[in-house]
Amino acid sequence: MATLEGMDYVSALVPPVVMAVFFIGVVRVIVKTQGGAAKTKEDAAVDAALARADAAPESPVAGA
Description:
Layout (H helix, E strand, L loop, with lengths): L6 H26 L4 H19 L9
């Protein structure tokens, strides 16, 4: 049976702790960027892209 001593505990715990901190940071950035002044601009860009996609003529499907 293998045992961890001294610095082995630290080296075993560092990667999951670093990943957890990074994940929490990513979630915080995502939550903070939702809504606000940027939301209106983003919504307008999506609406414009959808309008362009709807207005574009459909290409014929090959083999149909």
